[in-house]
TrEMBL record:
The active site is at residues 88, 161, 165. Belongs to the RNase T2 family. This is Ribonuclease T2-like. Pfam families: Ribonuclease_T2, RNaseT2L_C. Residues 283-307, 314-330 have a biased composition (Low complexity). Residues 275-330 are annotated as: Disordered. Its main location: cytoplasm. PROSITE patterns: RNASE_T2_1, RNASE_T2_2. It comes from Sistotremastrum niveocremeum HHB9708. GO terms for biological process: RNA catabolic process. The keyword Transmembrane does not apply. InterPro entries: Ribonuclease_T2_eukaryotic (IPR033697), RNase_T2-like (IPR001568), RNase_T2-like_sf (IPR036430), RNase_T2_His_AS_1 (IPR018188), RNase_T2_His_AS_2 (IPR033130), RNaseT2L_C (IPR057328). One of its GO terms (cellular component) is vacuolar lumen.
Length: 435
């Protein structure tokens, strides 16, 4: 081949990338469009797998109505931080646990991050990648730490998870997305949602809050592990083992609305995993620790009130602060009505013990009703909460889970409704400041 022919060939290989539609996605307007990632479905609607009539599958996940958030505990070799499980993926299983895979060959995207398949730096610098182009760098940074391939090829692993499972999600079919959505926006929505769900399911913290930490000598029974996880999270996951070593966990959900921004409702695992009933090992990882993916870091000092007892003891009065998932500083707290705001937080009266407590404010008793928190004079029966120690902090839990969420982050005079669980877009934990 002549030099000229070679040069022409190289140029034509590079050109489609430069002229690709992603180039235009760098404009701020398009980036914003990507980031918002909203469907037009709302967060209500029929719960997947429970419909009695046919539904619009853009807003009703079908046939994959069971959404499985799957995590790894990789020790041979180790991947990710030593104090966190890592992401395997989000799988849309049918309601009977059969599943489809590789549902759309035309959407097996191969440019999820910034990995370049050509050795040329020139090509690499113009090859704009889906998540980077979408401005989803927070998600990408998180994936780089917590979504790890054992062979070291994270990009290929992400492509595989998207191509095998993400393309089977009915609510992520491109024609379901709002008009004007950029090309491949549905894959960005997929990765954003997987990361958000994972952040609300801190398996390592759930286990350690119940006294179960990695050990090279101890063994556990399956019921020890599942009951600890149920107690900490409120739900029973599926646990998978390889040669008696715990190495995968599956957290099950059903969904109202779209994978993009619908309400994920946790359910108990409809089937057991592969772990034996006894003699299960949970060995330590080698590597470095990280800020836990969810909840406040243990080194954070919180609250304006001085401690009233040893760390973790239950005070009778306290403000309640909000720590967003992955953040080590607080963002406001709870007001008298049980809403989240950055205005001056209310003083809560706490009655009972860490294993069973009730909350009230100057407005009245607090309850969880229809999945959201309210305090007021109309509340006749206060709901039962518990308090869970995490590092040096005491977190409020409902149904054993310290995960709460809302539809937005408040500022100014805006108040956000607090929902139990991680089904809404902003996940956080509630910290007892005076503990
Ligand atoms: C539930 O909705 C899906 C999607 O529209 C449909 O295929 C299925 O038949 C529905 N189930 C019932 C019982 O109507």
């Amino acid at each position: 081949m002549s030099l000229l022919a070679l040069a022409t060939l190289l140029l034509s290989a590079a050109l489609p990338s430069i002229a690709s539609p992603y180039w235009t996605e760098l404009s701020p307007a398009n980036r914003d469009l990507f980031k918002r990632g909203s469907s037009t479905c709302g967060t209500g609607g029929v719960l997947s797998c429970t419909n009695t009539t046919a539904q619009n599958t853009c807003c009703f996940e079908s046939p994959g109505g069971h959404l499985l958030q799957v995590q790894f505990w990789d020790t041979n070799p180790s991947t990710g931080p030593t104090n966190s499980w890592t992401i395997h993926g989000l799988w849309p299983d049918h309601c009977d646990e059969t599943f489809d895979q590789f549902c759309d060959e035309s959407r097996q995207y191969t440019d999820i991050s910034g990995v370049c398949f050509f050795p040329s730096d020139f090509y690499r610098s113009y090859h704009l990648q889906i998540l980077t182009a979408a401005g989803a760098t927070d998600t990408l940074n998180f994936m780089n730490e917590f979504w790890k391939d054992q062979g070291g090829d994270d990009e290929t692993f992400w492509e595989h998870e998207w191509g095998k499972h993400g393309t089977c999600m009915s609510t992520l079919v491109p024609s379901c997305l709002p008009k004007g959505s950029a090309a491949k926006a549905e894959a960005v929505d997929f990765f954003n949602t997987v990361v958000r769900l994972f952040q609300g399911l801190p398996t390592f913290t759930f286990l350690s809050s119940q006294g179960i930490t990695p050990s090279s000598t101890a063994t556990f029974t399956l019921s020890q592990l599942t009951s600890a996880l149920k107690k900490a999270s409120g739900f029973t996951p599926g646990l998978d083992c390889t040669s008696g070593v715990l190495n995968q966990i599956t957290w099950y959900h059903e969904l109202r609305g779209s994978v993009i921004d619908g309400t994920f409702v946790q359910i108990d695992a409809p089937q057991a995993g592969s772990c034996p009933s006894t003699g299960i090992k949970y060995p330590p990882k080698t590597g470095t620790t990280s800020t836990p993916p969810s909840g406040p870091s243990s080194t954070t000092t919180t609250g304006s009130q001085s401690p009233t007892g040893p760390p973790g003891s239950l005070p009778t009065k306290s403000t309640l602060s909000i720590f967003q998932s992955g953040s080590s500083s607080k963002t406001g707290g709870l007001l008298t009505a049980g809403t989240w705001s950055t205005q001056t937080p209310a003083t809560y009266t706490i009655s009972g013990s860490t294993s069973s407590l009730t909350l009230s404010t100057s407005k009245g008793k607090c309850q969880v009703s229809g999945g959201s928190l309210t305090c007021g004079s109309s509340v006749t029966t206060a709901s039962t909460f518990s308090a869970v120690t995490s590092g040096s902090q005491l977190l409020i839990a409902f149904g054993g889970s310290t995960s709460f969420s809302s539809d937005g982050v408040p500022s100014g005079t805006v108040q956000e409704t607090v929902f139990t669980g991680t089904g809404h877009s902003k996940a956080f934990s509630i910290v007892v400041d005076a503990a």
